[in-house]
Structure formats: C-alpha cells, structure tokens
Write a structure and sequence with these properties.
Blueprint lengths: L11 H6 L19 E2 L20 H4 L2 H4 L11 E6 L4 E8 L12 E2 L9 E2 L3 E6 L5 E9 L5 H10 L20 E12 L2 E10 L5 E11 L3 H4 L5 E5 L2 E5 L7 E4 L9 E5 L5 H5 L11 H8 L9 E2 L1 E10 L4 E9 L15 H21 L6 H16 L1 E7 H6 L9 H4 L10 E7 L11 H14 L1 H10 L27 H11 L5 H21 L31 E3 L1 H22 L6 H21 L2 E2 L4 E2 L1 E4 L5 E4 L13 E4 L1 H20 L8 E3 L6 E5 L3 H11 L6 E2 L2 E2 L10 E2 L7 E2 L23 H18 L4 E3 L7 E3 H13 L17 H5 L12 E2 L6 E2 L10 H7 L27
Antiparallel strand pairs: 1-2, 2-3, 3-10, 4-5, 6-7, 7-8, 8-9, 9-17, 10-16, 11-12, 11-15, 12-13, 13-17, 14-16, 18-19, 20-23, 21-22, 23-24, 25-27, 26-27, 28-29, 30-31, 32-33, 34-35
Helix pairs in contact: 9-23, 12-13, 12-14, 12-23, 13-14, 14-15, 14-16, 15-16, 16-17, 17-18, 20-21
Amino acid sequence: MSRTASSRGTTAEHARLAQATARAQDDLFEANPWYEWGPYLSERAWGTVREDYSDSGDAWSFFPHDHARSRAYRWNEDGMAGLSDIHHDLCLALALWNGVDPILKERMFGLTGPQGNHGEDAKEYWWYLDGLPSNAWLRWRYHYPQEAFPYQRLIDENARRSRDEPEFELMDTGVFDHGRYWAVDVAYAKASPIQVLAKITIKNHASEEATLSVLPTLWFRNTWRFTGGEVPGLSLDDDGIVVDHPRLSGYRLDAAPTADGARPQALFCDNETNNPRLFGADPITEYPKDGINDHVITDASTVNPDQRGTKAAWWYKITVPAGAEAEIRLRLHRPDQQLTITKNDWHGTDFDTVMSEREREADEFYAALAPDDIGEEKMRVLRQSCAGLIWSKQMYPYRVARWLDGDPGQPSPPPGHRAGRNSGWRHLDSFDVLAMPDPWEYPWFAAWDLAFHTITWAHLDPAFAKYQLLILLREWFQHPNGALPAYEWSFDDVNPPVHALAALRVFVIDGATDLDFLERVFQKLLLNFTWWLNREDPEGNNIFGGGFLGLDNISPIDRSHLPPGVRLDQADGTAWMAYYSVAMLALSVLLAERDSVYEDMVVKFLEQLVLVMDALEASGCYDPNDGFFYDLLTDAFGNREPVKVQTLVGVIPALPAMTMPARNTERIQRLRKRFARRMEAQNRQIPDWRIRGNGDSRRALVSIVPPDKLARIFATLFDEDGFLSPHGLRALSKRHSTPYQVPGMPGATIEYEPAESHTAMYGGNSNWRGPVWFPINYLVIRALLQYDEFFGHEFSIEYPTGSGQQLALRDIAGDLADRLISIWLPGPDGRRPVYGGVELMQTDPAWKDNLLFYEYFHGDNGAGLGAMHQTGWTALVADLLLNPPRRAQRLIFYDDTATTPDVTTSAPS
C-alpha cells in the first residue's frame, strides 16, 4: 500500500531533512545545512527576460547563445550538471571539448523562440537520473557527439521548416550514428553539508579510440561589476583551487589524478565580459570569461599565467579506447577535521564508500516512499521524475525596480525597456530558490506550474513544498493589489488559481497536521481571491474571464486579444473561480475546526460558491442538448453565440467538488441560518445541499454541477473517439478532426492537432489543441475521487463511453492514472510510448532507460512533445505512483465513518 509522510518510516535521507535549524517556509537559507549546496545553477541564463535590456523587449536577440561564453550575466549563471551554493555566489559545472568543436561545450545549445519552427527548443540530450531532496546524492547524464556539433545546420534546417513539419533534431543530423559519441555521467555525493564529492565517468561509444577534454569549472557569479563590492578570488594551491570570498573563504576544489597518474592542468581567467569581441570596446581584463575557451580551442594566451582569477577549470585530456570508460574524481569542500575526509588519499576508499552509501540511501528513501508492489519499471519512472524535479531547483534573482532603472554606474536602459514588460511590478524583489518548470526552456518560475510542482515535492520534502507555495504569497512577490505574478515574460498574465488546491494537497500528503501553514496560506490567498473578484469580474455578475488562463489559446479565438466590442463569457474562467471558492471553503472548514473565527469565512465562501454556481447556470454556457459547457461570444451588436468546440474548457466546471463528512456537515448545518439570511437578503435562491447518509455517516457534497449534468459531461469526456486517448485525456476532442469555424468570425477556426500546433496564434504556442497535458488530467482524477467519496459504488457510469462497461468513479480515476503512467512504461513490444518512433531511444541500451518528462504528449500515441525536461507538472506522475487513485484514502477531510448506508441524493436547485 502507499505511504504518507507520517507513516513511511525513517531513512538516512529523512534524518538529513530533519536536521532543521529554522523553518524552511520562513528562510530556506538557514533552514537546513544540507541545503547549502544544490543544483541551483540553471541550464540556461542567456535569452531570458532578466538579461534583456533592449528597447523592444526582444530577449532572445539581446543576449543570444553566441554571447553566453563571452558575456558576464547580470542576474544568474548557467552550466551543465551544475551546482552552486544557496546564495549563488560560487558555481561548479562541467565543460567538455571533443577536439573539433568551435567552442567548449559549457552550456546546452538550443533554438530561440523565433528560430524554432515550433518555438524554443533544446537541441541536446541530457537526463536527470537520480537525486535526493537534500542534494546529498545527484546523478546526471549527457550524450556528447564526437563529430563537430552541428550548430548552424540545426539553425538553418529548422528555419527552413514550416509549422506543419516536424522539428529537426540533433539525432536527425547523424552525429550519433555508429555510436560516435561520449556518454558522460556526473554523480555528486555529499560526505557532509560542506563536502561534495564528484565522480565524472566518460564512456567512449565509438568503435575507435578517442580523446576528450573534460574541464570541471569553478567560478564566481559576477556581483562586483554591477552592484559594487569586493572582487573575490580563485587561486592555485598544490592540487586544489582555493576560494577567497567573504562568506565562502576556505573552500577548495581538489582534483585527483587519472587512473594512469596524470594530473590535470589548472586554468584561470576572469568572469568578465569580453568587450572587444562583442562590442569592439576596451577590454576589462586580458583574461575574460571566454579566456579558458579560447586557450583550449586555439592555444590563445587568454589564461592568467599567475594562476588566479574569478573563473578556473581543471583541464583533463583523456584518451579512451573503443567501448571503454575513464573516471575523474573531484572534491569541493571546506576543510574541517570533524566533518570531512582530510587524508591525502581522499579519492580512494573513502571516496568509494561515500558514493556507494549515498546511492544506497537513495534506494532506501524511494523504497520507503513507494508502494510495496511498485515494480522495477514504475520505480524507474518514480526515481527519474523526482530526480528531474530535484535538479530543477534554481536560484532566481530578479529585482524588478533595479532591472527597470538600470544599475548605478552602468548605462541607463532605453525608454522602451523602462516602461515596458513588468513595469507594474517594481515591488518584486526575488532572491529565492524556486522549482522551475524546466531548467532550459523555462528557466524561470511559472505560477500555476509551481503549484503542481509542490504536490510531488510534498512527498519528497514537505518543508520545501510549503516554502514554494508561500514564496509567491510573500510581499516581495505578490502584488499589493493581490495579484500573483504569472511568469517572467509577463507577470501580468493570468494563470488558473490553483494555489489553494495545491496547499490542501500538500497539507494532506504531509500528514494533515500543519494548520499553521494552512492559515498562513489562507490569509494571503484572501487578497488574491479579492483581486480575482475585482479584476476578472469587472461587471460584477460572477462571470469571470482571464484570457487564455494557462491553456495557451485552446480556443479558436485568441481569448487574450478579443476584437473591439466583443465579449467572451468563459466557461473555464467562471469554473476556475468556483474551484477557487471550493478550495478556500475547504481551507476555512479545516481552520474552523481549530478556531471558530473562521466560521465566518465558511459562510463567505459558501455564498461565493452559490453566486458563481447561479451565474454559471444563468449564463447559457451549458448546452443541454450536447450536455457540455461552451464559451459564449457576444458581438458588438449584442448577439450571443456559443463557441461549440469541445475542449477541456467545457470539463472544468465539473472539477470543483468536495465531500465533507459528518462533523463538518454539522458545522454547515449550524451556519445554515446565518447563511440563509444573507442569501435571502440578496433575493437569491438557497440551494438544497446534497446530503448523503444519516447520523455519523452523513456526508455533504459541495459542487457546482449536479449528478445529471455530471453524467452527461463524463459521457463526452470518456469517449475514445473524442477526448479519451490510450494515454490520458486529450485537450481537444478528436471529433474536431474536421475543422470548426466560429460563425461570423472568418479565420477563427480550430481542428484536432494531436502534436504541436500549426497556428501562429499566441506566438505559435497554441499547443492545447489535441495533446495530453498532465495538469488537467490530474485535476480530473482528483475530482473523480471527490465524487466517489460521496457517491461510492452506487454511482457508476459507462467507461469508456460505448463500451457497455459500468465503472465506479474511483476505478475510472485509477484507469486514467494507469493510462498516464503508461506513457513511460515499456509496452508488450518493449517500446515506451514517450519516445514514439525514435529508434535509438526505443532500443539502444545506452538510451532506452533514460527517461524524459515532456511538457505534453501526442494525443494518439503518447510521444513526448514540447519542453523535454518539464519535470514540474509532469512530475505529477510521481503522485499518481505514490498515492494510486484506487487506494487513495484521505482526500481533504479525515473520514471516520466505517460504513456507507443507503441514502437519497438531491441536487441543488
């Protein structure tokens, strides 16, 4: 059976997480010594909004990949297999050179948004194979071609291709044919919070001997150039690179000799911009940021002969026979007699012991989390999905006021920059470790993605999960008007309000005891809830908008940019507000169990739910003939027309649902008179709350869709010719394979597209038109469990539609979870759906068990699409594995009833 945080037992990793010196939700920097070093270094810092000081806001062009090796970043750093200290002052990452590339491989390459025929796109292959939430154990893998990396060919061929054609991938260039590549594995194991051991293993997959330069690189984030302060330093001390820094002095990066006794060469330069190369300006230093690159590639005199600087690397040149491996060992540590390995042979037996112990402890940690019968392949999915989540922890520095105004002593940004993007968010001042959706394609936070991240994080490290939920509600993130910032490219965009849902799920996974956390979330969400009422319901009729609401123009109409005089009543905008109301109601009821003051909030959110329910009922968004919800379009002349496209928008009204057991329904009954007076004073009809059972077994169902409509919606949703695919629910019904056009709006068309979108709407990222996306699938599963908790086996529906098979809702939730999990599992033919027709990934032993967790999945065959490492919300697969729907116990409220007697059910009037 599955375990929760309170019942899974104690492992060495749990003991590390328990070494708290402060509450993580208050101050992550002081919360636990094991957090000091972690994978906080992004895979990409170039091309981000933070580095963009252009007049036009064209971030991709202002700081391109070609500048990255030569230009000091302003806000954060990037690198491969990278670590940094928690303040992001000192960074450690991997650089490689195959002897023929024009540049060192210091960071991942990919196409910018304008370059890719389907948007931004990483053009490398790397995997996050393992990790512990304390960062005491981390494993990473990369496949590096031995031929010259085809940078320009990837750019040119993708530019030639249209949106109707597939992306041109690195594998398509032939550089991996005949095994001509290096498999590079990096494993980090902490001997203590201040001692990190690193093992780099390189395997030559070619049929002939080959030589690889491996350059583990240590450098300081450049804070002195932009913000003033003392310049830190790195210098050579025998076999160590020594750190001189106000906070980190004493650390050193030791390098062991190779197996044949060869010692690496130490190279030093400065993390300063190469002004002559990029701007034709005077140099800051003779040994700029790309000094090591130029020295290794061309033997240029660009490294400091005095062996000091702010960037340094150990240069290993290793020749490996065909099919053989070689190994490099490093130690980043601050010498301490009691906590570290201090012997000169640190890279010997003690090194092996620490490595093997940490890997064994990772085995124990995940075995303690997982159901006993999980099996090898599902455990692989669990371990690697969690590893991706752990590796996606990134330091996120962004002081918007300083970014808008420019740094003192530096040139002022142009007017367009200072008055453009995010100019209304001057209060935002982030210096926090955040769970990013993807460390390359999305190396910045996204608000609704982050809410889903916390659900899986609650299984791994509940303290970090709570920190993530609270951080966006802190005064340096949340706008004074109550809005939450959406994501870096536009804080003003509106994401679905799922923070309250995530808080409930984290609370339950963590053992349902931390009411202080719930109260803290609740108080700040009240501000955000009020913002939604005032901002997204400007007419005060409880019909809510919000634009694309995270579902990147799932509609044939660009919902964020409507024609003049046109209004769109969004079924999902209104339903999301009902969802928010239900979640806030649940928080209120839980808090009222401890403090009766919150009973007023119970009344408030009951009232709000009824207002939204009545408004949705009166809106006309529900089509009784189709049994489905649609957006309603009102033109400039007042004519109303439903946008009769069956998308997940029409399902969202069925998602807000909550079942409350007896002790909570009694509270509702006590409040009923007060609630009734408030409703009658507004001439509103009082709903007849659906009640099930008698006495101690009594339950109440809070939802906005009654059972008859629910059955109709589910019949549409679970049709395999429509939404239900072998690997989850499609975002758009397959029945729209024949294009649909909005009446009276030429060009407003939509058709089922199981893979990437062919439309340029919303920057070409309208990819909710057929693929399977995890977040809504997950919410459907949670809703099914809530309805099942109320109805039990007495409410069943045909599933799949037309099959003649009647299933209880819990069993349907279990089947949906199985379909989603199957994306990564080998089928009867041994092939994983996630890799589609990519033969190398399906059959080659060096590739096939390295899993990628994509942004979304092909609506027909489950192949991975979009960002390859979106182990943010896609890591919800771990929650489905750790808490299988068929075995799910506590959902929100503890149910102490032992039986479910026969009952009658009445729908709200």
